[in-house]
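Homework help board

Subject: predicted structure for assignment chain

Our instructor gave us this sequence and asked us to write out the predicted structure in token form, then describe one feature. I got the tokens but I'm not sure how to describe them. Can anyone check?
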Amino acid sequence: MEEPAQLVQFLLCLFLFNWSSFSSANEIDDYNDKPEFKIEGKVYISSKDKEWTLNSRVLVDGGEYLGFVRTDGSFVVHGVPSGSYIVEIANPNALFEPLRVDITSKGKIRARRVNFLQPTLVKTVNYPLEFRERGQPNYFQKREQLRLTDFLFNPMVLTMIVPLLLIMVLPKLMNAADADTQKEMQNQMNALNNRPNMPDPAELLSNFFSGGSSAKKAVKAKPTTTSKRK
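My token output:
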């Protein structure tokens, strides 16, 4: 009984394997039927390193299609079907601006700048592609150093230095001014010092709540007592 069951399992596995291989072959044939194109361009760099091409890669859509840079800076990426792709140059010592390449089903290629904020805005560039160095990458943040300006613009230092400067500079400005200006400023100071005394708010409130009539009655009662004595 066990031998027929094992034979059935073997035949079933063989059938499934042939079916999967047949379907994968059909998919490969369908993929091969699609037309493929190539993306060409050249890289310009100011580096004096003669081996910079060995460290450079051409990435199409983040590495879905890969290309290498020749010694003269040119490159060709083969086997790219029709569609829209972002082409980048990856180099550890240089930065390049990415470009977008649109390939039609008939093989017509158009290159334009990458604009993620406004995808509908089209600014075409020359094809074959030209990549020029934009700068060098910065992998490390520079360490902050102590500077004199950091000490001078400290709020605690400003609160101490500014009043001291005013105390030292203002008297010299007063002495340097002419006699009319000194007299005018002296009159202003005297007017501020001789202003009438303002009433005490606490006294006003106590008089208001205690009642001012009792005080008036006390003031009126004094002449009556003196008249009786007379």
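Reply (TA_rk): Your tokens look well-formed. For the description, you could write something like this. The beta strands are 36-44, 57-60, 65-68, 74-81, 83-90, 95-96, 99-103, 109-113, 124-125, 129-135. That's the kind of observation they're looking for.
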